[in-house]
Structure formats: structure tokens, C-alpha cells
Amino acid sequence: MAEQRAERDAEYAEVVERTPAFLAEIQTETARGRATYAEVEESEADLERFEKWLAGIAARDYFNAPGGAAARAAVQQCRHALADFERAALHADTAGFNRPHSGGKAPLSEDDAAEE
């Protein structure tokens, strides 16, 4: 039993060790102004891999290894960071629709410009 718990703990620790890179990537892309849906989709795929990996470990964790809580918390932190990143991408995507045209007026058509 102790050996199996130690094995699961090692697996959970590996999950915890790898999540900071995921968080750093999101932070870097946000700082670069690259909160786009392409980046969100890439990060979603990475998060899915973490979730599947964590689920696989949990399925073999018959004795509730103590490292499971830290691994679940680390993946949850990734979920929250991705949700924030997705909101930033949505905001960036829709920001152009909310900006007024120059002078707050709609651009003139050629016919309107000729009449002025």
C-alpha cells in the first residue's frame, strides 16, 4: 500500500511540476497581446491533456495518495487561468466592434462625400 501511494505521489508531483509552464505560457501570450482564439484552443488542448493525465492517475490511486490534492489544485489553477485568457480573447475580438469611427460618425460613402 505504501509503495502504491508513493508511486501515485510521484505521478501527482509530475503534474504539479508541469503546470507552471502552462500558466507561464498564458501569462506570456497575454503580456504580448496575443489573447486570440487560436491561442485559447491551443491552451485548451494542453489543459485537456492535464485533465486526462490527472484522471488516469486518480483512477489508479486506490489509497488516496496525499499528492492528489496538490495536483488537483494545480490543474484547477490552470482552468481558472484559461478561463481568464478566454475572456481576454473575447474582449480583444469584440473590442473592434465597440470603437466609434473617427469623430464618432459613421464613415461617409462616396455619394455622401460628394454632397458635402
Shape by Cα distribution: elongated
How many independent structural domains? 1
Largest sheet: none
Number of strands: 0
How many angstroms separate the termini?
86 Å
Poorly predicted sequence stretches spanning 5 or more consecutive residues: 101-109
Helix count equals: 4
Average pLDDT metric: 87
Structural class: mainly alpha
Could you give the order of the helices and strands?
A: HHHH
Which percent range describes the beta-strand content? under 5%
Gyration radius, in Å: 23 Å
Q: Helicity level, as a percent range?
A: over 70%
Structure explained in plain terms:
There is one protein chain. The protein has 116 residues and is mostly helical. It has one domain. It has helices spanning 2-31, 37-60, 67-98, 110-115. It is elongated and about 55 Å long. The N and C termini lie far apart (86 Å). Residues 101-109 have low confidence and may be disordered.
Describe the structure using short key phrases.
116 residues, mainly alpha, ChrB_N, ChrB N-terminal domain-containing protein
In short:
The protein is an all-alpha fold and 116 residues long.
Task: Lay out the secondary structure.
Layout lengths: L1 H30 L5 H24 L6 H32 L11 H6 L1
